[in-house]
Specification:
Blueprint lengths: L8 E6 L18 E5 L5 H12 L5 E6 L4 H15 L4 E6 L6 H7 L6 E4 L3 H4 L2 H11 L3 E3 L2 H6 L3 E4 L2 H16 L17 E5 H6 L6 H5 L7 E2 L5
Parallel strand pairs: 1-2, 3-4, 3-5, 5-6, 8-9
Antiparallel strand pairs: 7-8
């Protein structure tokens, strides 16, 4: 991005803009670059707190992860730190490509009481294999994105990517129409963070969706009834 001298640059769906060296800081990006990060700083801690409070039998959480993806590493570290406060351990199963995801998930059977997936492109591209294992072995699967919940994970604290794109679009309007300078615009986060639960996935993975879980939702439309695969 140092090569971009004049044209304003707006990013979206970036987990760690500072770590990716797109901006100097979230509050003061500097240069000609700013945008919308797709991970609310409270999302991972809230999901881990949800696991701890509503899944008391979970003492270990397994994460299938490509350690080469910086966004996945950041989120896994955040999850591990949040779970440590509840004395819940994390077990990682590393992969380098999508063909290894199924075997990595299988390696966690008997060692992890629940699965958690970050915004890991390598893992998400083969998420159906993880969902099948979670269903077959009755292991609750949690994710960091709504799309994976719609496909068959039990829950996340997330948002709709449509809203995320709309948020980035509003920033573009400020730049193109109102003359705002990207370097002066704070990096934005999703502003509609909420608990999302897939009831079919919960049933497939042996999870009872309790009133306590439902009461944690701001919008009951986020109680999904998608078909678990």
């Amino acid at each position: 991005m140092q090569n971009v001298k004049d044209a304003p640059v707006l990013f979206a769906a970036i987990t760690d803009p500072v770590g990716a060296k797109l901006v100097k800081s979230l509050d003061k990006p500097g240069g000609n670059v700013t945008g919308a990060a797709d991970t609310h700083p409270d999302a991972v801690p809230k999901l881990m707190d949800f696991i701890a409070s509503d899944f008391p039998k979970v003492k270990t959480v397994g994460i299938v992860i490509n350690e080469g993806e910086s966004n996945a590493v950041v989120m896994a570290k955040n999850a591990e730190a949040a779970l440590a406060k509840h004395n819940i351990k994390v077990i990682r199963a590393s992969v380098t490509n999508s063909s290894e995801v199924k075997q990595a998930a299988e390696s966690l059977i008997g060692r992890a009481d629940a699965f958690y997936l970050t915004l890991d492109n390598t893992v998400i591209s083969a998420v159906d294999s993880v969902i099948k294992i979670a269903n077959d072995k009755k292991i609750p699967l949690f994710s960091s994105d709504r799309d994976t919940v719609e496909r068959g994970a039990v829950a996340t604290y997330g948002f709709k990517y449509y809203d995320h794109g709309y948020q980035a679009g509003k920033m573009a309007v400020e730049i193109l129409k109102n003359g705002a300078k990207p370097g002066d615009m704070k990096v934005s986060y999703p502003d509609k963070l909420d608990l999302i639960i897939n009831t079919d996935a919960a049933k497939a993975q042996g999870v009872e969706v309790t009133d306590s879980m439902k009461n944690k939702m701001q919008d009951k439309k986020n109680l999904l009834s998608g078909t678990a695969k």
